[in-house]
Design goal:
The protein contains 12 helices and 12 strands. By secondary structure, it is an alpha/beta fold. The strands form 3 sheets. The chain has a 5-stranded mixed β-sheet, with helices on both faces. A 5-stranded mixed β-sheet has the order 10-9-8-11-12, with helices on both faces. Strand 8 and strand 9 form a beta hairpin.
């Protein structure tokens, strides 16, 4: 049995796993990221948690043929620098130079959303498909594209930023500096913003009770729960959110024609109040849907494990960065 080593570097935790040939995690370890520290310390901890999980799985570090790492950025293939990991304040960061101080293994680095999408395609919600698109609906909107079981990110390997495709011309300012990005309308942050704006004009909404009359307590779950309980304001917000999301997804379907669309992140936990109308609205909004159909939208299955699995198997399914 061959084993693969994968790391998911997040703003909160550094998670590592040993994955077998069946795409199953046989051991996991994690340590806090403490993202404000010097880069040398974080890279040291990436190696430390990797050694720790290898020991837990009883696999010698020397037996791994590569080290796969998912990071919240891309590596520029021309400069080999990590472009922009804003959680860490790393811009054009020489990540390989730091990592190679700890190992002679080939190193594969990939955007964390791409790793999660690959993981779900190999072992999760899309394991029976070869072509998939995934969106993670959280603080922002991450995304990934899998074509023929391989990550697609453009000729320079830095594309597929699905959350930053344009949804509304000259629309709401996004954290990326552009206006009208899908993320500005379809993230949990966007739904929270929309809820707070709506509550300024309505003092009777159930959302006030669910947030203990403090707008600071508004989150996506408050909006969804109020909608499920029949609150009209919340229902309108969820309906509007589904409109936005279905329009964004329809563009991806028209361009890529995936076999399945995977939704992850906190808002995907809304269940059928989201998925049933979203599948219907996607059909209504997509080119030639009545003739050629649309892919089904499904919920991600692996949670944080998806990123570990995808990172570990970059050796097999991604180009070396």
């Amino acid at each position: 049995m061959k084993y693969y080593l994968g790391v998911d570097l997040g703003g909160t935790n550094i998670a590592a796993g040993v994955v077998d040939e069946n795409h199953t995690i046989v051991a996991k370890e994690s340590i806090p990221t403490n993202a404000g520290r010097p880069a040398e310390e974080i890279v040291q901890d990436i190696f430390t948690v990797s050694k720790r999980v290898a020991q837990k799985a009883n696999v010698a570090m020397e037996s791994f043929t590569s080290w796969g790492i998912g990071m919240p950025s891309y590596v520029n293939p021309k400069t080999h620098l990590l472009v922009h990991a804003n959680n860490f304040g790393w811009i054009n960061f020489p990540i390989f130079d730091f990592l190679k101080k700890h190992t002679d293994m080939p190193i594969y680095i990939e955007n964390d959303a791409n790793c999660a999408t690959l993981g779900e395609t190999l072992a999760g919600a899309a394991r029976n498909y070869n072509n998939a698109i995934m969106l993670t609906l959280g603080t922002g909107v991450g995304g990934g594209i899998i074509l023929s079981k391989r990550i697609f990110s453009g000729y320079d390997l830095m594309g597929a930023e699905l959350g930053h495709t344009k949804l509304v011309y000259n629309g709401i300012l996004c954290t990326c500096g552009q206006k009208g990005c899908l993320e500005s309308y379809c993230s949990a942050t966007a739904l929270i913003r929309q809820a707070k704006e709506a509550l300024k004009d309505d003092s009777s909404s159930l959302m006030w009770e669910l947030c203990d009359k403090d707008l600071k307590n508004i989150d996506g779950k408050v909006v969804v729960d109020a909608s499920k309980r029949g609150d009209n304001v919340a229902k309108k917000l969820v309906d509007q959110y589904i409109d936005y999301l279905s329009c964004g997804l329809s563009t991806f379907v028209t361009i890529f024609r995936p076999e399945v669309i995977i939704l992850g992140g906190g808002l995907a936990d809304a269940g059928e109040v989201l998925f049933e109308p979203l599948n219907k609205r996607l059909y209504e909004n997509t080119f030639a849907a009545s003739v050629i159909g649309i892919p089904k939208i499904v919920k991600a299955q692996l949670g944080n494990d998806a990123g570990i699995i995808g990172a570990a198997l970059l050796e097999k399914y991604a180009e070396k960065r």
